[in-house]
Amino acid sequence: MSKLKFLCLLTLVAPLIGCNNKSSGIIDVASYVDTSGHSDCSDKIQELINNNPNRTLYFRDGTYLLDHQILTPGDPTKSVDLQLSNYAILKASDNYQVKRGGVLEKWQDEYLYMVSLGGLDRINEVTIPGSVYSLTGGIIDGSGKAAGIEIAGGRETRVQNVSMKGVEIGLRIAPGVNGGGSSDADIQDMSIICNDSATSYGLKLEGSDNSATNIRIGHVTHGVLSSGGTNILKNVHPLHNGDCKKYNYDESVGFEISSFTELSNCYSDNFRIGYQFNNTSAFLTDCIAWWFGPAGAQGDEYAISSIGGELSKEFNATINNFVVGVKEIDKDVPRINPQIMIGAPTGGDGTIHNIRARNRELIHDIKKDGGTYIPRENYILAKYYEENIGSY
Prior knowledge:
- By secondary structure, the chain is mainly beta.
- The protein is built from 3 helices and 30 strands.
- The strands form 3 sheets. It has a 19-stranded parallel beta sheet that branches. Strands 5-8-11-14-16-18-20-23-25 form a 9-stranded parallel beta sheet.
Protein backbone atom coordinates (compact mmCIF):
# COMPACT_ATOMS: atom_id res chain seq x y z
CA MET A 1 0.00 0.00 0.00
CA SER A 2 1.35 3.42 -0.93
CA LYS A 3 2.08 5.98 1.76
CA LEU A 4 -0.60 8.35 0.43
CA LYS A 5 -3.31 5.65 0.50
CA PHE A 6 -2.27 4.65 4.01
CA LEU A 7 -2.58 8.21 5.29
CA CYS A 8 -5.98 8.65 3.67
CA LEU A 9 -7.24 5.41 5.22
CA LEU A 10 -5.99 6.51 8.63
CA THR A 11 -7.73 9.85 8.24
CA LEU A 12 -11.07 8.21 7.54
CA VAL A 13 -10.82 6.19 10.74
CA ALA A 14 -9.60 9.01 13.00
CA PRO A 15 -9.20 12.46 11.41
CA LEU A 16 -6.02 13.53 13.20
CA ILE A 17 -3.69 14.03 10.25
CA GLY A 18 -5.80 15.62 7.54
CA CYS A 19 -5.79 14.34 4.00
CA ASN A 20 -6.83 16.70 1.23
CA ASN A 21 -7.27 14.05 -1.40
CA LYS A 22 -10.84 14.44 -2.70
CA SER A 23 -11.55 10.75 -2.17
CA SER A 24 -11.05 11.08 1.59
CA GLY A 25 -13.98 13.46 2.03
CA ILE A 26 -12.00 15.34 4.70
CA ILE A 27 -10.43 18.77 4.24
CA ASP A 28 -7.57 19.68 6.57
CA VAL A 29 -8.21 23.40 7.11
CA ALA A 30 -4.82 23.96 8.74
CA SER A 31 -3.15 23.12 5.42
CA TYR A 32 -4.64 26.30 3.94
CA VAL A 33 -4.64 28.92 6.72
CA ASP A 34 -2.48 30.40 9.44
CA THR A 35 -3.23 28.73 12.79
CA SER A 36 -1.06 31.01 14.93
CA GLY A 37 -3.86 33.52 15.56
CA HIS A 38 -1.92 36.36 13.93
CA SER A 39 -3.79 36.75 10.65
CA ASP A 40 -7.40 36.56 9.45
CA CYS A 41 -8.61 33.13 8.32
CA SER A 42 -12.28 33.89 7.70
CA ASP A 43 -12.12 34.48 3.92
CA LYS A 44 -10.15 31.31 3.28
CA ILE A 45 -12.36 29.21 5.54
CA GLN A 46 -15.42 30.54 3.73
CA GLU A 47 -13.82 29.63 0.40
CA LEU A 48 -13.19 26.09 1.63
CA ILE A 49 -16.82 25.81 2.73
CA ASN A 50 -18.13 27.09 -0.58
CA ASN A 51 -15.89 24.86 -2.70
CA ASN A 52 -16.32 21.57 -0.84
CA PRO A 53 -19.99 20.55 -0.69
CA ASN A 54 -20.77 17.45 1.38
CA ARG A 55 -17.30 17.35 2.87
CA THR A 56 -15.98 17.37 6.42
CA LEU A 57 -13.75 20.34 7.27
CA TYR A 58 -11.35 19.36 10.05
CA PHE A 59 -9.67 22.02 12.22
CA ARG A 60 -6.48 20.87 13.94
CA ASP A 61 -5.26 22.41 17.23
CA GLY A 62 -4.44 26.09 16.75
CA THR A 63 -6.03 29.54 16.71
CA TYR A 64 -8.09 30.50 13.66
CA LEU A 65 -8.61 34.27 13.72
CA LEU A 66 -11.88 35.57 12.27
CA ASP A 67 -12.41 39.15 11.06
CA HIS A 68 -16.00 38.31 10.12
CA GLN A 69 -18.50 35.50 10.45
CA ILE A 70 -18.36 32.26 8.49
CA LEU A 71 -21.55 30.73 7.09
CA THR A 72 -22.42 27.19 6.05
CA PRO A 73 -25.14 26.28 3.53
CA GLY A 74 -28.52 24.94 4.61
CA ASP A 75 -29.01 23.33 1.20
CA PRO A 76 -28.28 19.60 1.74
CA THR A 77 -26.49 19.37 -1.63
CA LYS A 78 -24.02 22.06 -0.49
CA SER A 79 -23.77 21.42 3.25
CA VAL A 80 -20.53 20.79 5.12
CA ASP A 81 -19.65 19.26 8.48
CA LEU A 82 -17.32 21.26 10.75
CA GLN A 83 -15.18 19.20 13.14
CA LEU A 84 -12.79 20.94 15.52
CA SER A 85 -10.16 19.24 17.63
CA ASN A 86 -10.43 19.84 21.36
CA TYR A 87 -7.94 22.74 21.27
CA ALA A 88 -8.87 24.29 17.94
CA ILE A 89 -9.97 27.88 18.64
CA LEU A 90 -12.11 30.08 16.43
CA LYS A 91 -11.33 33.55 17.80
CA ALA A 92 -12.97 36.91 17.03
CA SER A 93 -10.33 39.43 16.01
CA ASP A 94 -10.04 43.02 17.21
CA ASN A 95 -11.66 44.05 13.91
CA TYR A 96 -14.63 41.72 14.22
CA GLN A 97 -17.95 43.42 13.38
CA VAL A 98 -20.29 42.42 16.18
CA LYS A 99 -23.64 43.68 14.87
CA ARG A 100 -25.42 43.82 11.53
CA GLY A 101 -26.22 46.99 9.65
CA GLY A 102 -29.30 47.74 7.59
CA VAL A 103 -32.74 46.17 7.67
CA LEU A 104 -33.01 42.74 9.29
CA GLU A 105 -34.83 39.83 7.73
CA LYS A 106 -37.49 38.18 9.90
CA TRP A 107 -35.26 35.27 10.91
CA GLN A 108 -32.25 37.44 11.81
CA ASP A 109 -31.34 39.23 14.99
CA GLU A 110 -28.89 42.10 15.35
CA TYR A 111 -25.75 40.02 15.91
CA LEU A 112 -23.29 38.62 13.37
CA TYR A 113 -22.56 35.23 14.91
CA MET A 114 -19.05 33.89 14.45
CA VAL A 115 -20.44 30.69 12.95
CA SER A 116 -23.81 30.78 11.18
CA LEU A 117 -24.91 27.22 10.44
CA GLY A 118 -27.33 27.18 7.55
CA GLY A 119 -26.90 30.93 7.08
CA LEU A 120 -26.47 30.41 3.33
CA ASP A 121 -29.15 28.84 1.11
CA ARG A 122 -31.75 28.50 3.88
CA ILE A 123 -33.90 25.57 2.79
CA ASN A 124 -36.51 23.42 4.53
CA GLU A 125 -35.46 19.90 3.52
CA VAL A 126 -34.93 16.71 5.54
CA THR A 127 -35.27 13.95 2.93
CA ILE A 128 -32.05 14.58 0.95
CA PRO A 129 -28.73 13.18 2.26
CA GLY A 130 -26.72 16.06 3.68
CA SER A 131 -29.64 17.68 5.48
CA VAL A 132 -28.27 16.67 8.88
CA TYR A 133 -25.01 18.55 9.39
CA SER A 134 -23.15 19.63 12.50
CA LEU A 135 -20.46 21.57 14.32
CA THR A 136 -18.53 19.37 16.73
CA GLY A 137 -15.82 20.16 19.27
CA GLY A 138 -13.38 23.01 19.70
CA ILE A 139 -13.49 26.42 21.34
CA ILE A 140 -15.42 29.50 20.21
CA ASP A 141 -13.70 32.60 21.64
CA GLY A 142 -15.81 35.75 21.30
CA SER A 143 -13.01 37.95 22.67
CA GLY A 144 -15.49 39.44 25.13
CA LYS A 145 -17.77 40.94 22.47
CA ALA A 146 -18.91 38.62 19.66
CA ALA A 147 -21.89 36.27 19.56
CA GLY A 148 -20.89 32.61 19.20
CA ILE A 149 -22.96 30.17 17.11
CA GLU A 150 -26.23 30.56 15.25
CA ILE A 151 -28.36 27.82 13.74
CA ALA A 152 -29.88 29.96 11.03
CA GLY A 153 -31.35 27.49 8.55
CA GLY A 154 -31.92 23.87 7.73
CA ARG A 155 -33.42 21.36 10.13
CA GLU A 156 -32.03 18.64 12.40
CA THR A 157 -28.76 20.53 12.80
CA ARG A 158 -26.42 19.39 15.59
CA VAL A 159 -23.97 21.29 17.79
CA GLN A 160 -22.09 19.26 20.38
CA ASN A 161 -18.96 19.10 22.56
CA VAL A 162 -18.27 22.82 22.08
CA SER A 163 -16.70 25.21 24.60
CA MET A 164 -17.40 28.95 24.38
CA LYS A 165 -15.50 31.78 26.06
CA GLY A 166 -16.21 35.51 26.28
CA VAL A 167 -19.32 35.50 24.10
CA GLU A 168 -22.17 38.02 24.14
CA ILE A 169 -24.60 35.27 23.17
CA GLY A 170 -23.64 31.61 23.30
CA LEU A 171 -25.97 29.88 20.86
CA ARG A 172 -29.09 31.06 19.06
CA ILE A 173 -31.54 28.89 17.13
CA ALA A 174 -33.45 31.00 14.63
CA PRO A 175 -37.05 30.28 13.60
CA GLY A 176 -37.14 27.49 11.04
CA VAL A 177 -37.67 27.91 7.32
CA ASN A 178 -40.79 25.75 7.05
CA GLY A 179 -43.25 28.52 7.87
CA GLY A 180 -44.14 27.10 11.26
CA GLY A 181 -40.82 28.02 12.85
CA SER A 182 -39.73 24.42 13.43
CA SER A 183 -35.94 24.06 13.44
CA ASP A 184 -35.55 20.60 15.03
CA ALA A 185 -31.99 21.25 16.20
CA ASP A 186 -30.15 19.23 18.83
CA ILE A 187 -27.47 20.83 21.02
CA GLN A 188 -25.66 18.96 23.75
CA ASP A 189 -22.58 18.68 25.96
CA MET A 190 -21.56 22.34 25.90
CA SER A 191 -19.88 24.83 28.19
CA ILE A 192 -20.79 28.48 27.57
CA ILE A 193 -19.01 31.34 29.34
CA CYS A 194 -20.45 34.74 28.42
CA ASN A 195 -19.07 38.25 28.98
CA ASP A 196 -21.20 39.43 31.95
CA SER A 197 -22.87 42.17 29.88
CA ALA A 198 -26.44 43.27 30.62
CA THR A 199 -27.55 41.89 27.24
CA SER A 200 -25.72 38.56 27.44
CA TYR A 201 -27.61 35.30 26.85
CA GLY A 202 -26.42 31.73 27.13
CA LEU A 203 -29.07 30.16 24.88
CA LYS A 204 -31.77 31.76 22.74
CA LEU A 205 -34.23 29.22 21.38
CA GLU A 206 -36.36 31.27 19.00
CA GLY A 207 -37.16 28.30 16.75
CA SER A 208 -39.33 25.43 17.91
CA ASP A 209 -38.99 21.66 18.40
CA ASN A 210 -35.39 21.77 19.63
CA SER A 211 -33.57 19.89 22.37
CA ALA A 212 -30.80 21.19 24.64
CA THR A 213 -29.04 18.67 26.87
CA ASN A 214 -26.10 18.78 29.31
CA ILE A 215 -25.25 22.48 29.01
CA ARG A 216 -23.54 24.70 31.58
CA ILE A 217 -23.60 28.48 31.30
CA GLY A 218 -21.68 31.07 33.31
CA HIS A 219 -20.97 34.83 33.55
CA VAL A 220 -24.35 35.63 32.01
CA THR A 221 -27.27 37.94 32.82
CA HIS A 222 -29.92 35.92 30.95
CA GLY A 223 -29.39 32.18 31.09
CA VAL A 224 -31.94 30.70 28.69
CA LEU A 225 -34.71 32.22 26.57
CA SER A 226 -37.20 29.78 25.07
CA SER A 227 -39.65 31.63 22.85
CA GLY A 228 -40.08 29.24 19.91
CA GLY A 229 -42.27 26.65 21.58
CA THR A 230 -42.14 22.90 22.15
CA ASN A 231 -38.51 23.02 23.18
CA ILE A 232 -37.06 20.40 25.53
CA LEU A 233 -34.37 21.34 28.05
CA LYS A 234 -32.59 18.72 30.16
CA ASN A 235 -29.65 19.16 32.55
CA VAL A 236 -29.20 22.85 31.71
CA HIS A 237 -27.42 24.85 34.42
CA PRO A 238 -26.99 28.63 34.04
CA LEU A 239 -25.08 30.51 36.75
CA HIS A 240 -25.00 34.22 37.52
CA ASN A 241 -21.49 35.08 38.67
CA GLY A 242 -20.20 37.88 40.84
CA ASP A 243 -21.69 40.62 42.96
CA CYS A 244 -25.13 42.11 42.42
CA LYS A 245 -24.23 45.65 41.32
CA LYS A 246 -21.31 44.87 39.02
CA TYR A 247 -22.91 42.05 37.08
CA ASN A 248 -26.50 43.21 36.41
CA TYR A 249 -28.03 41.04 39.09
CA ASP A 250 -31.33 42.89 39.27
CA GLU A 251 -31.95 42.24 35.56
CA SER A 252 -30.91 38.60 35.74
CA VAL A 253 -33.18 35.67 34.82
CA GLY A 254 -32.15 32.02 34.81
CA PHE A 255 -34.88 30.69 32.48
CA GLU A 256 -37.34 32.92 30.62
CA ILE A 257 -40.14 30.91 29.02
CA SER A 258 -42.39 32.62 26.48
CA SER A 259 -43.83 29.55 24.75
CA PHE A 260 -44.47 25.95 25.77
CA THR A 261 -41.26 24.32 27.01
CA GLU A 262 -40.46 21.15 28.94
CA LEU A 263 -37.65 21.37 31.49
CA SER A 264 -36.20 18.53 33.54
CA ASN A 265 -33.27 18.47 35.96
CA CYS A 266 -32.54 22.15 35.23
CA TYR A 267 -30.82 24.42 37.73
CA SER A 268 -31.18 28.20 38.02
CA ASP A 269 -28.15 29.24 40.03
CA ASN A 270 -28.10 32.64 41.78
CA PHE A 271 -30.30 34.62 39.35
CA ARG A 272 -32.71 37.19 40.79
CA ILE A 273 -35.54 35.41 38.98
CA GLY A 274 -35.10 31.67 38.64
CA TYR A 275 -37.90 30.64 36.27
CA GLN A 276 -40.03 33.30 34.60
CA PHE A 277 -43.17 32.38 32.66
CA ASN A 278 -44.52 35.02 30.31
CA ASN A 279 -48.22 34.05 30.34
CA THR A 280 -47.49 30.65 28.82
CA SER A 281 -47.72 27.01 29.82
CA ALA A 282 -44.64 24.99 30.66
CA PHE A 283 -43.78 21.75 32.39
CA LEU A 284 -40.97 21.55 35.00
CA THR A 285 -39.83 18.34 36.64
CA ASP A 286 -37.04 17.92 39.22
CA CYS A 287 -35.72 21.47 38.83
CA ILE A 288 -33.80 23.69 41.25
CA ALA A 289 -33.59 27.41 42.11
CA TRP A 290 -30.76 28.35 44.45
CA TRP A 291 -28.94 31.45 45.68
CA PHE A 292 -25.47 31.51 47.20
CA GLY A 293 -24.94 35.26 47.59
CA PRO A 294 -28.16 37.24 47.27
CA ALA A 295 -27.09 40.24 49.40
CA GLY A 296 -27.26 43.57 47.59
CA ALA A 297 -30.29 42.88 45.40
CA GLN A 298 -32.47 45.93 44.78
CA GLY A 299 -35.59 43.91 43.95
CA ASP A 300 -37.28 40.86 45.38
CA GLU A 301 -35.92 37.48 44.36
CA TYR A 302 -38.20 34.83 42.90
CA ALA A 303 -37.77 31.13 42.29
CA ILE A 304 -40.95 30.97 40.21
CA SER A 305 -42.28 34.12 38.65
CA SER A 306 -44.76 35.39 36.12
CA ILE A 307 -43.71 38.43 34.09
CA GLY A 308 -40.64 39.39 36.04
CA GLY A 309 -42.28 39.04 39.42
CA GLU A 310 -45.19 41.33 38.63
CA LEU A 311 -48.60 39.78 39.19
CA SER A 312 -50.10 39.02 35.78
CA LYS A 313 -53.45 37.57 34.74
CA GLU A 314 -52.60 33.88 34.57
CA PHE A 315 -50.12 31.28 35.72
CA ASN A 316 -50.23 28.10 33.61
CA ALA A 317 -47.03 26.22 34.41
CA THR A 318 -47.02 22.74 35.91
CA ILE A 319 -44.19 22.31 38.42
CA ASN A 320 -43.35 19.00 40.07
CA ASN A 321 -40.59 18.17 42.57
CA PHE A 322 -39.02 21.60 42.93
CA VAL A 323 -36.06 22.40 45.21
CA VAL A 324 -35.51 25.98 46.37
CA GLY A 325 -33.31 27.68 48.92
CA VAL A 326 -30.56 30.03 49.99
CA LYS A 327 -27.12 28.95 51.09
CA GLU A 328 -27.34 28.70 54.88
CA ILE A 329 -24.55 31.18 55.56
CA ASP A 330 -26.30 33.87 53.50
CA LYS A 331 -29.89 33.60 54.64
CA ASP A 332 -29.57 36.22 57.38
CA VAL A 333 -27.64 38.79 55.33
CA PRO A 334 -29.58 42.11 55.36
CA ARG A 335 -31.52 42.85 52.18
CA ILE A 336 -33.26 45.97 50.94
CA ASN A 337 -36.39 43.93 50.22
CA PRO A 338 -37.52 40.63 51.69
CA GLN A 339 -36.60 37.46 49.86
CA ILE A 340 -39.75 36.26 48.10
CA MET A 341 -39.40 32.79 46.62
CA ILE A 342 -42.71 32.39 44.79
CA GLY A 343 -44.58 35.07 42.84
CA ALA A 344 -47.65 33.99 40.91
CA PRO A 345 -51.15 35.33 40.11
CA THR A 346 -54.45 33.76 41.10
CA GLY A 347 -55.71 33.03 37.58
CA GLY A 348 -54.81 30.18 35.25
CA ASP A 349 -54.61 26.43 35.65
CA GLY A 350 -51.00 26.17 36.83
CA THR A 351 -50.02 23.87 39.68
CA ILE A 352 -47.05 23.50 42.02
CA HIS A 353 -46.49 20.13 43.68
CA ASN A 354 -43.91 18.91 46.17
CA ILE A 355 -41.63 21.85 46.91
CA ARG A 356 -38.58 21.01 48.98
CA ALA A 357 -37.48 24.20 50.69
CA ARG A 358 -34.35 24.86 52.68
CA ASN A 359 -35.59 28.21 53.99
CA ARG A 360 -39.33 27.83 54.55
CA GLU A 361 -39.65 31.27 56.13
CA LEU A 362 -38.66 32.88 52.84
CA ILE A 363 -41.38 31.24 50.76
CA HIS A 364 -44.51 33.27 50.15
CA ASP A 365 -47.30 33.82 47.69
CA ILE A 366 -47.53 37.58 47.80
CA LYS A 367 -49.26 40.80 46.97
CA LYS A 368 -48.00 44.30 47.53
CA ASP A 369 -50.07 46.10 50.18
CA GLY A 370 -48.98 49.56 51.24
CA GLY A 371 -45.38 48.79 50.41
CA THR A 372 -45.26 45.56 52.40
CA TYR A 373 -45.37 41.95 51.28
CA ILE A 374 -47.78 39.53 52.96
CA PRO A 375 -49.01 35.98 52.30
CA ARG A 376 -52.25 36.01 50.33
CA GLU A 377 -54.98 33.44 50.93
CA ASN A 378 -56.03 31.16 48.10
CA TYR A 379 -53.00 31.98 46.02
CA ILE A 380 -51.40 29.17 44.10
CA LEU A 381 -48.77 28.35 46.71
CA ALA A 382 -51.22 28.61 49.59
CA LYS A 383 -53.25 25.78 48.06
CA TYR A 384 -50.30 23.40 48.41
CA TYR A 385 -48.45 24.80 51.42
CA GLU A 386 -49.63 22.53 54.21
CA GLU A 387 -49.83 19.43 52.06
CA ASN A 388 -46.75 19.57 49.88
CA ILE A 389 -44.05 21.81 51.30
CA GLY A 390 -41.42 19.96 53.27
CA SER A 391 -38.07 20.82 54.79
CA TYR A 392 -34.79 20.40 52.96
